[in-house]
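Fold in tokens:
===
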Amino acid sequence: MIKTLKIFLVLITLQSCNYNQEKSKLIGNWSDPYGSTGPLELEFYSDSLIVTELGTTYINSWEVEEQKLYLKPYLGFEKFGLKDIKFDYSLSSSGDSLMMSKKSEKSADGIATFTVFRIENAFDYLERQNRISLKLPTSDDLISEPKESIGLNIYVGFRDKKLIVISDNNKLDGLEDLKIYCYDYLSWKSKEGSNSDLHFNLVIDKNVQEREIDSIKTIIRQTGFEKFFRIYTNEEVNYQKTNWRDELEWYGKRE
């Protein structure tokens, strides 16, 4: 009897360990900035899951078992018409993407599928929002972004191994419409009561060649503004140490 009880306790312990390991793999922040209905954010905690979509936040309890995720809305959310939901889920081998699916009458094949990506910090979130890969160069003796003028972010990095130039949230795609975008930006800022001085925060991948950077600067100067602030990183201002919802504070050098 005692031997049987020990075996039973061992099995229960192993099952509990497997369950905790499976659940711990999901704990963290996940996002799909370009979901079919708009940005989707998932915040997994050990005892709750916070879902934000369509400007609304829902709080759920959650459990996992054999690649299935079970959500149960907390008490008080019945007015939203929320019911218990079951998802099939699959975590990538690298652990940075999570695919989820569930039955849906609105989907052509009867299954609604979406993928969210793990967000580690604010810089990672910026890359996801802009669908760009950026590896910043390092340098010492950095200063914070100038506060005496409006800073317009210009990102120069890679998407699918192709060099791209964009601004925040893909409002600028390429340099062709940069002039119009700058003037629209200044017009909007003027209405907000800001001054009309402008500088460009050049957030450029370290692998971009100097001749390409010079070409970008030449095009930007055609807007009539030519104050550049090149963004760098180092151990002191490591953007990877930020919280995922932090507003990034740029450090770099005037150029």
About this structure: The helical segments are 2-24, 122-130, 178-191, 210-221.
